[in-house]
Design brief:
- The chain is α/β, with parallel strands linked by helices.
- About 45% of the residues lie in helices and about 15% in strands.
- It folds into 2 domains: about 200 residues, 3-Layer(aba) Sandwich (Rossmann fold); about 180 residues, Rossmann fold.
- The strands form 2 sheets. It has a 7-stranded parallel β-sheet with strand order 3-2-1-4-5-6-7, with helices on both faces. It has a 6-stranded parallel β-sheet with strand order 10-9-8-11-12-13, sandwiched between helices.
- α12 links the parallel β11 and β12.
């Protein structure tokens, strides 16, 4: 009996415990899932946790054996709001909960993607002397990661130009953005049939399903009559915009023989999105970093329409950083006109020299092994934190 108890104690001590935290958007959540995939593949006796106010994607957590820990957090808005005052108390309560949660499981490492939801967990980890790694997806550091950088053992960046401060830049390791395995896979054998598209035309993939994409969606609908003459258009609209897109396309394109080349969908799961990336000739998108790195990983030219700077400084800076690599063109939202998207698609797809140069540009920063390198870094810390 004593031997059995000693064995159980030894096994418990040998288990690696890693806590993931970050944001409340896919741009924060799915890179963590990618890291979890690599951790599960490389570490035995592993316990993974995800902390935050919400599960975000329960299926993603379950598929990767990640236990959810509820930790509330208050949001810090960049504009005047009374909610900023009340959310201070929510963050304080979140810190109290985080200290209890982390003390009970005592993880070897906290891996943070930033965002306001990470603040209580980062503070709790600091108080409990738990090693912290942070990852910054954007070309300009977010406020949460600027705060967390002071406590982090390592600071991982997506962009080689990202800087946090003179004193903290020595901690920076530029590794790119971890991309989920499903989005690093080869194209499905029956991808054309699964997506229900015509195989004989160049494909324009439009990713307009994220928050703040209404203006981009509207611009695509206006230019359909030009695009559908030569191209098949797969348009990820977002759940709220799907019905509008369908009705608008029916009004704009009255000929069903032309309209059949327009494929609006609310969202694409990771496998279908991967296939759509592979099959597309060019991608039109906003400037979320994870999406931009996914596009580059598939070696596709991009037309980027960032959210205006007064709404998001990150998107505009991300877009121009990617454009400097030579693999994308940027169209400011204020410059969108009825024909500019169609003319840019035509200029890129129909000019082999331009197209090949843009494809070459994607290879200067897209990386397949980011998740594995981050997982290896985490593992090295767990070996020392016993």
């Amino acid at each position: 009996m004593r031997d059995r108890i000693n064995m159980m104690i030894s096994e418990t001590k040998s288990r690696k415990k890693i806590l993931l935290v970050g944001g409340g958007t896919g741009g924060h959540f799915y890179p963590l899932i990618s890291i979890a995939e690599s951790l599960n593949a490389t570490i035995q006796n592993l316990d993974l946790y995800y902390a935050g106010p919400k599960k975000y994607d329960p299926t993603g957590l379950d598929e990767n054996n990640i236990k959810y820990l509820y930790v509330p957090a208050g949001k810090r808005r960049k504009y005047f709001s009374l909610l900023n005052f009340f959310d201070l108390f929510k963050t304080a309560f979140g810190l109290f909960i985080a200290i209890i949660r982390l003390f009970l499981i005592y993880p070897d490492v906290v891996m943070s993607k930033g965002g306001y939801t990470s603040i209580p967990v980062i503070l709790a980890a600091r108080l409990l002397r738990i090693p912290i790694i942070i990852h910054e997806s954007d070309s300009i550091f977010g406020s949460a990661n600027r705060f967390a950088g002071k406590f982090a053992k390592h600071i991982i960046t997506a962009y080689d130009t990202a800087s946090i401060s003179e004193t903290l830049d020595s901690k920076i390791i530029n590794l790119g953005i971890p991309i989920r395995k499903a989005l690093r896979a080869t194209v499905s054998a029956d991808a054309i049939n699964k997506l229900g598209i015509d195989p004989d035309r160049p494909i324009v993939l439009v990713l307009g399903g994220s928050q703040g994409a209404e203006r981009l969606n509207d611009s695509i609908l206006v230019t359909l009559d030009e695009l559908l003459i030569k191209y098949t258009v797969i348009h990820q609209t977002g759940e709220k915009n799907l019905e509008t897109a369908i009705l608008s396309s029916e009004k704009t394109i009255t000929d069903p023989e032309i309209r059949k080349y327009y494929h609006p969908v609310a969202s694409l799961n990771s496998k279908k999105l991967n296939d759509a990336y592979h099959l597309s000739s060019v991608v039109i998108t906003r400037a979320g970093s994870t999406t931009l790195f996914e596009i580059a990983l598939h070696e596709k030219p991009a037309i980027i329409v960032p959210i205006p700077e007064e709404i998001s400084h990150d998107q505009r800076s991300n877009a121009y950083e990617i454009a400097r690599k030579g693999c994308a063109v940027v169209i400011e939202e204020k410059n969108l006109s009825d024909d500019i998207l169609a003319s840019e698609v035509e200029r890129i797809v129909q000019n082999p020299e331009i197209y090949d140069n843009m494809v070459a540009g994607t290879k200067t920063f897209a990386r397949q092994d980011t998740a594995d390198k981050i997982a290896d870094l985490i593992f090295q810390i767990t070996e020392k934190h016993k």
